Amino acid sequence: MPLDNSTAELRDDELLVTRTFDAPPALVFRLWSQAQHMQRWFGPQGFTCTHCEIDFRPGGRWLACIESEQSGPLWMGGEFREIEPDHRIAFTFGDRDPAANVHPSTEVVVTFTDRGGGTTLQTFHQTGFPTVAFRDGHIVGWTSAFEKAEVYARDLAEAATPVVSAFRWVPEFARGQVRDLRVRWALEEAGRPYLTHLLEQGEQAQPGYRALQPFGQVPAYREGGIELFESGAIVLHIGETSEALMPESREGRARAMVWVLAALNSVETVVQQLGEIDAFHAGETWAQARRPAVVERVKKRLAELAEALGDKDYLEGGFTVGDLMMASVLRIIDDTDLVAGEPRLKAYLARCEARPAFQRAMAAHLADFRD
Ligand SMILES: N[C@@H](CCC(=O)N[C@@H](CS)C(=O)NCC(=O)O)C(=O)O
Fold first, then answer.
1. Which residues of the chain fall below pLDDT 50?
2. Cα–Cα distance between 78 and 64 in angstroms, integer?
3. Do residues 23 and 153 touch, judged by C-beta distance below 8 A?
4. CA–CA gap between residue 327 and residue 332 (Å, rounded)
5. Which of 66, 238, 313, 367 could form a disulfide with 47 if both were Cys (CB 3.0 to 4.6 A apart)?
6. Ligand 1 binding pocket includes 222 (Cβ within 6 Å)
7. 183 lines ligand 1 (CB under 6 A)
8. What spacing in Å lies between the alpha carbon of 218 and ligand 1's midpoint?
9. Separation of 19 CA from ligand 1 center, angstroms?
10. CA end-to-end span of the chain
């Protein structure tokens, strides 16, 4: 790949590293804007990025830790100064602890230029180094990290990376509950990287988005030429390509689908009524009158579900996309004690939520909200 890290034309306190990526600018930009992607390449070869937090907005901060066997943890971070989506990011870069003196306080501008044919020229310009030695050390480090980024970006582009829609903002009480979480969870279980399309206020009503999601809701999903909506349809689609979500056997696949539909048709329809009463109508007279009957219906369904689960870890024994959807639905009423009222379901939900894929999906879901 073309690489220009010459310093001949530059001042002693600055560096410029350019690199061409076999991926479109929107994708390369996200390698910087989303922690789940940055974590995959940040740090030179031999280093692992063990922590990455990104509050991606002007004034927002980022924090990362890289580590190799020899180095121990190296923390660094800074603040985003300017952001032009898919084009340019300006931010500060330095040690988290300024006394560490590993990464002096510097200013970075990264630009992304569309070179056509799904390729991007990334220009990385960093200024403010106190010495040439520091500057030269960083050229080596960044060049090595960008080699990793390039391989990762190519893999993402080749896999027709799924794009999941999500809201950029929802009220605090809804965070952790929005239905893009189900899709992120399925993708994490399947081990598939993904991108997000974060909807700005009002974007859900625009014709472009309605063409993708007729009801203006999230999630919507694109993958190569496929466009989908409805969380159930999306997770079933993802499940088709992953044994982590659907067993190999025809019978096993059919049973997994049964539980997805049971979660959506037989449990969510009841649970959602209670969720809406509590979230949106709590003080209203009609809601107070209606709530006890709804609670009784929920209790009945939960008892039936607990009976079907029995002593198994998951509804069909091993985890499937059916459990993913059932747990997602049970979470709608996790602010009540109704699930806890069925000890087997309580343990089942905790088991599902403890899965590393769920934890990663939740972290990414929460990290994408902006106040
Ligand atoms: N049945 C749909 C429901 C989607 C849904 O209710 N999405 C909510 C967020 S969790 C939404 O977009 N609400 C905004 C709206 O309805 O305008 C699915 O499962 O995908």
1. 1-4
2. 9
3. yes
4. 9
5. 66
6. no
7. no
8. 5
9. 40
10. 39
- Cβ count near 237 (within 10 Å): 18
Q: What are phi and psi of 116, to 5 degrees?
A: 80, 165
121: Cβ contacts below 8 Å, ≥ 6 apart: 18, 19, 20, 21, 112, 113, 115
Binding site membership of 175 for ligand 1 (Cβ less than 6 Å)? no
pTM: 0.68
Cα–Cα separations (whole angstroms), residue 309 to 109, 171, 177, 296, 320: 54, 34, 24, 20, 13
Residue 96 tokens read as 């988290």
Tokens of 103: 């990464």
219 Cα–ligand 1 center, Å: 7
Q: Ligand 1: which residue has its CA nearest to atom 3?
A: 230
Closest alpha carbon to 92 in 127, 144, 47, 57: 127
Q: Which domains does the chain have, with CATH numbers?
A: 3-158 (3.30.530.20), 163-243 (3.40.30.10), 250-358 (1.20.1050.10)
Query: Which ligand 1 atom sits nearest the alpha carbon of residue 178?
Result: 10
Check pocket membership of 18 for ligand 1, CB cut-off 6 A.
no
Question: Exposed, middle or buried: residue 266 (CB in 10 Å: 0-12, 13-18, 19+)?
Answer: middle
Tell me, in angstroms, the distance from the centre of ligand 1 to residue 213's CA: 10
Ligand 1 center–CA 229 separation, angstroms: 10
Ligand 1 centroid vs 180 CA: distance in angstroms?
9
Q: In this predicted structure, what is the pLDDT of residue 199?
A: 94
Determine if the peptide bond prior to 219 is cis (ω within 30°). yes
Sign of the CA dihedral running 146, 149, 151, 154? negative
Between the CA of 176 and the centroid of ligand 1 the distance, in Å, is: 14
- Give the rounded distance of the alpha carbon of 98 from its chain centre: 30
Q: Which atom of ligand 1 is nearest to the CA of 180?
A: 10
Burial class of residue 107 (count of CB atoms within 10 Å of its CB; 0-12, 13-18, 19+): middle
Sort 178 into a burial class: Cβ within 10 Å, 0-12 / 13-18 / 19+. Answer: middle
Mutate to test the pocket of ligand 1, among 217, 267, 368 (most ligand atoms within 8 A of CB): 217
